[in-house]
Design goal:
- α4 crosses α9, α5 crosses α7 and α6 packs across α7.
- Helices cover 18% and strands 31% of the residues.
- It is of the alpha/beta class.
- The protein is built from 9 helices and 31 strands.
Length: 505
Amino acid sequence: MSDIVESPNIGLSAQAASDKGRNWSIAHVQLTCRRECVGDVRLETQEQVDEFGALRCTKIIGSLIVTGTVASLEPLAALHKITGDLFVQENDSLSTLHGLECLREVGGQVTLIDASALTTVAALGNLQKIGGALEFIRTAVQRIGPFCHLKTLGNLFVVENAALERIDGFNSCHLRETSFINIVDNNRLQRVVGFNGLKTLEFSFFVAQNQQLQSIRVLQRLTFGAVILNTLPALTEFCDLPKVKETGTGIALTRLPLLRHLPAFPRLHTINGSFQVLDLPLVTNVDGFSALQIVTGTVVVFNTQSENLDGFAQLERIGGSLIILQNDALSSIQGLSSLLDVGMLISGNVILSNNISLSDFCGLQPIASQDPTGDPPFLVQNNAANPDKQAIAALQPCDVCNFVRLLLQRWVNDNVISTVTQRYFLFGGLGEQSVQCARRFNAITANQALILRGALEWYARQQETKCAKDLLLCCAPEGAPPCCASDIGLLRHELITQCTAFRQH
């Protein structure tokens, strides 16, 4: 089975008591010899476990494989360290790992696979180091944890555990780094909590195809790492990740039909890889990515209810393509106005297709105007309006202001805006700013500009629409960024219709 080596290292423990009056003392000294078992140990029957346990080995220089009909590991209570791997595999008799409570270190991986009777792994709770992977594959475990003392972990792999209901055993503040966490196809899993000591994930936190998973609250101290969520039909909650600054791989949030709010990454500035938001029909914005500046791969936003892309206001460079598809509520992409480069690493396209409310493309004017007939190619089709790249490059802020001026005049004529409102703003002390606006856009008189600005401010306060506030930039001092008409309160549909007609003329 293995060779036994008596270690020369001697452990010493002592207890002493004294009584000065009687001048006596008691001392107890215990010498213990550590036994090292050299070579891999394979245990297939309970008799073999009992025989090996009688050797009282504290260290296996090699791997331990438990399989067959073994029903109890209690005889292994002296074991402290395994330099190789620990496998519990193809076993229908072992319900617990009781007997491994003293195990502190496994140099390789810990794999529990096809252990159909194994319901708890609490006996591994004193582990401090796992050099390789910790794997749970097709077990009967109901809860993974606790691993409160774990300081080193290669990665975590949790797959096809039919009875697993929660993962909440990795709250050790000592575990700072691991390669990846994969949690896949555990059909009863409902919540994942913890990993709050982790600061670095070399690859990603990957969770997929867990049919009943409702809540994920993890990784609150993570500064470097990626998140990939895929096909989680019951997920309603994923916590914000406030400290993540950069990813080693991409971020993908796909096929999450009940998720209403994307997790916020308020410090994330660089995604090394792609960024994908796909099939999230209840998500209405991407505001949680307000610090994002660089994506080295492709950016995809597909089948959401996002009305705008304002969360991408800082995004400057995309290494691959920009793809915006089938977002029915999307009316403006002004949030992309900081974008300076698409296809900086690989040849990329700008694709905007099947966004039935999208008529405002001014956010792409800066990048389109760099090379109106060259790279990156633009494909714009099946939206509310479908200008080509040259038309987008030619968009000017004054076009929008002139349109809004005409539209507001129509609202005045139709008593949508009252004469009282006109007079309030006409004499409200905004004259100087309106004169500046009139000089900048000579098609608008001072009084018309005043009414324009006043009406927009009124709508901004009454309706609290961001578009109205953005449109105020049209009358801002020279150097203000371009603005685009998209949505003003209850008149959104009319505005889009009128804007489309205006631009066609």
